[in-house]
Amino acid sequence: MRAPLVDGHGRRINDLRVSVTDRCNFRCQYCMPAEGLTWLDRDDVLRFEEIERLVRLLAEMGIDSVRLTGGEPLVRRDFPALAGMLAAIPQLTDLSVTTNGFLLERDAAALVAAGVQRFNVSIDSLQRDRFFEMTRRDALPRVLAGLHALASQPGVGKVKINAVALRGYTEDEVLPFARFAREHPFEVRFIEFMPLDADQAWTPGSVLSGEEIRAIVGREFPLEEEEREPSATARTYRFVDGTPGRLGFIDPVSHPFCSDCNRIRLTADGKLRTCLFSLGETDLRTPLRAGATDDELEAVLREAVWRKELKHRVNEKGFQQPARSMSAIGG
Ligand code: SF4
To answer: How far is CA 297 from CA 1, 20, 264, 302, 303, in A?
Structure first.
């Protein structure tokens, strides 16, 4: 057994986000331009067996939770097969997927059967025209159909909805989402807009904070905060009137949660990112394809994690936005 992964600040690292592709079938305004981005060459993208080998090695080093992301992971061919390969890794106790839901109706059954336990579905508006405005795709009905197809799968775990909170857009979505969370078995989470957009147009003023959203909800549906789980990114709230349903708030800009961060990320082209806002990366694909042993890869991983950033510096003077945008990091 290999020693658990610990960073230079004493934080135990057991959560891995894996971006399986940089490609996406949506063009969300806060993420990428209408024309899309220059995608990675297929040869540069890690093959399933390479992803499986790295995840298996990291699982031996204490990673027990893996989230599969993109771009949009479901556009990767045979993605459920990859999920099945990872679900077979004995140390992994939690396998989840973040998706925009467009292909969920097609893949929900296969992903649940493959062993994916939890799903986050990205939906920024429950109004068809505004959804189209934000994603540049007229896809809301199909995404909602996918959501319900997923929820009807026997054995499916928690399904959450992630809505990116943007000033001047999300204010009108807040109450419809709160009602949706009260009427459906889905936790709705608002995520503060982060400076990871490909256009690099983010400003502090474009962030609608969790606090502001809670104030909007609270005027109609008073909320009560629940105890935060260690290393959790979201703070969850229940409705004081006892109506089932939860709202979650991921406030990395206004309330950073870096102190107990337990996360690292693997990009689709085989780079290790020790923080969402890392300015540097560690290349794993080159040693992997050059025949490095597991012990040699372990040394590279340990050295990189030891240098993991203490926190992000979004609110600090001189903050530098990473060159790699969210669609190529995968959240
Ligand atoms: S910003 Fe970086 S350090 Fe902070 S919680 Fe996110 S990944 Fe962890």
So the answer is: 15, 20, 15, 9, 10
What pLDDT tens digit does each residue of the chain (331 aa) get?
899 999 999 999 999 999 999 999 999 999 999 899 999 999 999 999 999 999 999 999 999 999 999 999 999 999 999 999 999 999 999 999 999 999 999 999 999 999 999 999 999 999 999 999 999 999 999 999 999 999 999 989 999 999 999 999 999 999 999 999 999 999 999 999 999 999 899 999 999 999 999 999 999 999 999 999 888 999 999 999 999 999 999 999 999 999 999 999 999 999 999 999 999 999 999 999 999 999 999 999 999 999 999 999 999 999 999 999 999 998 7
For ligand 1, the distance from its centroid to the CA atom of residue 132, given in whole angstroms, is: 30
CB count within 10 Å of CB 196 equals 21
| Residue nearest (by alpha carbon) to ligand 1 atom 2 | 275
> How many angstroms separate the first and last alpha carbons of the chain?
29
Structure-token pair, residue 162: 């992630």
**Is the CATH code 3.30.710.10 the one for domain 15-329?**
no
Q: Model's pTM, two decimal places?
A: 0.96
Gap from CA of 275 to ligand 1 centroid (Å) = 5
User: Around Cβ 57, how many Cβ atoms within 10 Å?
Assistant: 19
Tell me if 64 sits within 8 A of 94, measured CB to CB: yes
Domain boundaries, the chain: 15-329
Ligand 1 centre distance from Cα of residue 273 (Å)? 10
Ligand 1 pocket, Cβ-based, cut-off 6 angstroms: 252, 257-258, 261, 263, 275-277, 309, 311-312
| Cβ partners under 8 Å of residue 162, min gap 6 | 98, 120, 121, 122, 123, 189, 191, 250
Closest CA to 236 of 276, 193, 275, 181: 181
Q: Report the nearest-CA residue for atom 1 of ligand 1.
A: 312
